[in-house]
Design goal:
Distance between the termini: 54 Å
Number of strands: 16
Strand content: 15-25%
Low-confidence stretches: 1-8
Structural class: alpha+beta
Shape: globular
Largest sheet: 6 strands, mixed
Strand order of the largest sheet: 7-6-5-8-9-10
């Protein structure tokens, strides 16, 4: 439906506010409580939506590169772990978009406990057979974007993404500052010079009517909708919406409705000082898209070039994981991370409930820490609690994994099931799969940054030792960079210390 409002024109080409915008300490993150241990006899089932976002890792890196420890609320363990690719066996056919990979091994920070690693790896869509992409670049050109690591980095990033597109694809551009307007009508991606000219001539200035920009971007995407292709709005912003609809719940409702029409939303975050991670997580999670934080040109290349397929082309949507632990084998368990992705038990079989998406070639990892029966407990059983049934006692399984997903164009879910048993278990941590050990090191690092409530005497030096031994092939140097971040954390200061 056409808008009754006349869109404001984009900022004049080359316009830059003076002096450059600066802000400190107004970054917004949603606080959350860490997952605690649960008694299997009381709560045997754990259910959550997968998460392939990586924004938290990039934010942590940017903070540590400034010699500042990140805010605990900014550290989402699953996003730290899933920043890295893992060598899980891919599926053999596209009929089932991924396989389940399980490993069980001793915990390196809690003697007597074990870790259960659940990994999935999506199939890779070949470039020659991938669907057409109908993309709308929604670019924040408000005054808060007038900083070298904001709008100029946005421009470099989108130009990189443009190089990954071809004549099958279409690009539109909407900008917003005090108002919003269409800077480029749908244009074949083969006309790269025309598209680059619009991107390169953007300037920053004014307030931030983000909601109006989102509305216009969706209208443009729907006007050019390809039912057989990928229709996606890519929002590039620091999240500082201050004109029009600014309430997260209102924006969430709008994004959910638009998602049902076949247009997805991905969010690229930029800058520090007034970065609104809380808003951008809400938008991406409810828009069937990913949230990435771009702090460097190298990160832009990773997200939009090396991983362009996973960023743009989903192979499964509404992916949920449910694990049922056997009370005869496991006394307690704790899901490490995924606090903001928790689902109710009955959400698993409800196809109306939204969940995460997996992109082309993407790997997703989840870790549980479990206390075997007879091990050191964190809680005692209830006096009147349920007893373990005979069927559970006779089983050799630790637990049972179920994954429910939908194909991108389907509204009906499918199910993959895998028992967790002795086939997947190693007796020592050192004998565990290399990628499982590296993922454990990343998870341990994230947990230390969050306060280390459950990591015992684990130190940054222990993390370095584990990660160094499990680094393996490192074509792009991301794992080596992780080691440097752990070293940086040992000497970094908190924001409170900086203010003294």
């Amino acid at each position: 439906m056409a808008s009754s409002l006349r869109p404001a024109p984009p900022p004049a080409p080359g316009y830059v506010a003076n002096p450059p915008y600066r802000d400190v300490g107004r970054d917004k993150f949603n606080a959350f409580a860490e997952n605690a241990f649960k008694i299997v006899r009381e709560t045997p089932v754990s259910t959550f939506s997968i998460d392939v976002d990586t924004a938290s890792y990039s934010w942590v890196r940017a903070s540590l590169n400034n010699n500042v420890l990140p805010q605990p609320a900014s550290v989402r363990t699953e996003e730290m772990v899933n920043y890295f690719n893992y060598d899980y066996a891919p599926p053999k056919t596209t009929a089932q978009p991924f396989n389940t990979n399980v490993a069980v091994f001793p915990s390196p920070w809690s003697p007597g406990r074990k870790l259960v690693r659940i990994g999935i790896k999506g199939y890779t869509v070949q470039k020659t057979t991938r669907p057409r992409a109908n993309l709308v670049f929604l670019i924040d050109t408000s005054g808060s974007m007038n900083d070298p690591n904001k709008l100029p980095l946005v421009q470099k990033s989108l130009n990189m993404l443009l190089d990954e597109l071809d004549e099958r694809d279409t690009v539109s551009i909407v900008t917003y500052a005090g108002g919003a307007g269409t800077a480029l009508q749908p244009t074949p991606a083969s006309q790269k010079a025309k598209i680059r000219s619009v991107i390169d001539n953007l300037g920053a200035g004014g307030s931030t009517a983000g909601a109006e920009g989102i509305r216009q971007a969706y209208q443009l995407a729907e006007a050019n909708l390809d039912k057989n292709g990928v229709n996606r709005v890519i929002l590039a912003t620091d999240g500082d919406f201050n004109v029009g609809i600014t309430d997260q719940n209102e924006l969430k409702g709008y994004i959910e409705r638009e998602r049902g029409k076949g247009v997805f939303l991905s969010v690229l975050g930029f800058g520090m000082g007034n970065y609104n991670d809380a808003l951008m997580q809400t938008l991406a999670q409810n828009g069937n898209g990913t949230a990435a934080y771009i702090d460097t040109v190298a990160e832009a290349r990773k997200t939009l070039v090396e991983e362009a397929g996973s960023t743009l082309f989903p192979i499964a949507k509404d992916v949920k994981i449910q694990v049922e632990f056997n009370p005869a084998a496991v006394a307690e368990y704790r899901l490490i991370g995924y606090e903001t992705r928790a689902l109710n038990r009955d959400d698993f079989d409800n196809d109306k409930v939204d969940a995460g998406d997996v992109g082309s070639g993407q790997a997703v990892t989840a870790l549980y820490e479990v206390v075997p029966v007879g091990g050191k407990r964190t809680m005692e059983d209830l006096r009147y609690g349920a007893k373990t049934n005979a069927a559970a006692k006779g089983s050799s399984e630790i637990g049972f994994v179920k994954i429910r997903y939908k194909l991108p164009k389907s509204n009906t879910s499918r199910l993959i099931s895998t028992p967790i048993d002795a086939r997947f278990e190693t007796r020592s941590f050192e004998a565990a799969p290399r990628d499982a050990r590296f993922a454990t090191a990343v998870a341990g690092f994230a947990e230390l940054l969050r306060g280390g409530r459950y990591t015992g005497t684990m130190s940054y030096d222990d993390i370095l030792r584990i990660a160094s031994a499990a680094r393996g092939p490192d074509e792009y140097g991301y794992r080596s960079e992780f080691l440097q971040l752990v070293r940086a954390a040992r000497s970094a200061r908190t924001m409170a210390q900086l203010e003294q």
